[in-house]
Amino acid sequence: MKLLVSLLFIIHIAVAEENQTVLPIVLWHGMGDTCCLPISTGVLRLFLYKYIPNVYILSMKTNDDSITALEDSYLLNPNKQVIYACMMLEKHQYLKNGFNVIGLGQGSLFLRAVIQRCGHKLPPIKNYISLGGPQQGISAMPHCIAVTNRTCSAMQELLEFAAYHSMTQNALVQATYWHDPLRENEYKKKSIFLADINNEQRTNDLYRSNLKKLQHFVMVKFENDSVVEPRESEWFGYYTPGQTKELQTLQESNIYLEDRLGLQEMDRAGKLVFLSHPKEHLQIDEAWTLKNIMPYLVDKPINQSSDYVSINI
Q1: pTM
Q2: What integer pLDDT is reported at residue 10 of this predicted model?
């Protein structure tokens, strides 16, 4: 019986690999979410299955228990999450010929960290798609739907007054990409995650070379986003250091002008893609996604249906 099961498993893998005509996709959910909730990231996964036959999708999770996994999106140090992801992706048999990645919210940052820190050990990553990812961080606590308002208020106060304390950095995920433009030097010195992956503490050439291997770095900004503050962070823009009113684009920032991540070189090569969506954070619809995102996931046009609905991830 065990032999029969083993043979059937091998046949299943062989058939899956033979039928795979598109690159696999790795998803990473956002804050207050898990890999597979049917009302969020799971909806995006079903959408991709619907329009990309035979695609293999790996939705990242930190724990098999959904409650623990949801808590991890607030409490598990991103550096630990990235190490775990690198180990998983490196040995995954379905990804050996390369893959695309899609990050939702803070999951976009975690995937970029994977690309930069261990991309040289992984199969080729073709396209990196950031849906509402705070590439330059946040300056206000996002709406946290999954916890109480009281807890959200406590988090906001903690971040405003002690974001860069080592205990806060190691205890709260959102603190690791908290970017206070009024405390720029402290952010660069004490941020244990974002300042590192943005090469603001030192220039890590491995981060630059791994990121530049991408064919496309696609950034989606939601024009009515009330979760990421400022929303320009989703296009790698941010406040001009030292104040909280004037905004600067990626192209005006030191990260770009000094080419600390290779983004200037990628921009000139046509690898940076800036997309805009008119709705709230992650509230994308099928028609928009088919037109704007699908070309980076498949080589052939998708047969579109006429009954478009909101994906609401």
Answers
A1: 0.88
A2: 37
